[in-house]
Design brief:
single chain, 188 residues, alpha+beta, Immunoglobulin-like, six-stranded antiparallel sheet, four-stranded antiparallel sheet, 3 helices, 10 strands, 32% strand
Amino acid sequence: MRLASALLPLVAVGIVFMAVDMAAFSQTKPKSPPATQAPAKGETAPPAENQPPPSGWSSRCVSEGRQSALDCRVEQTVVETKTRQFLLQLAVRVPADTRKPVLTIQMPLGVLLTSGVTVKIDDGKADRYDVQTCDQKGCYAQVPVSSDMLQVMGKGKQMLVTLQNLSKQDLNIPVPLNGFMAAYQKIQ
């Protein structure tokens, strides 16, 4: 009896902490963007009729500690819907030291590095960029984002990113731009 009366306050405190943790857990939202289906090789995906495409752009800021500056970015990951294969990740990062946006394009391993990556927004001019580095997660190209490019991305409907596989076949990956500017404004 004495042991039960001694344990009762400890059990009550444990139940309160579990309830607080469960309430916090139920309020968190998943951070992964919705999947985007890639078109067949050499094709672009047709837009869905009568429905605005979902926005896959998300914004986030992190810091190394309380005294560190925030490192903010807007990003979208594109995966093939059926196989869940990673195709591409685009991130516009605003470094704390320069405050000048930089576009990072992460591609999967197995792309032809010498062909680089081509980016075209809507009916604009296609720009080719070199792939700078690769690691076990993929290959990367980084591009400074001018204010003109930022405006075009904000008003654009689709960015077409073209890579080549090792067989020198073009892989056209459409990336919807709806929601980009709203997400970008959160990190300015």
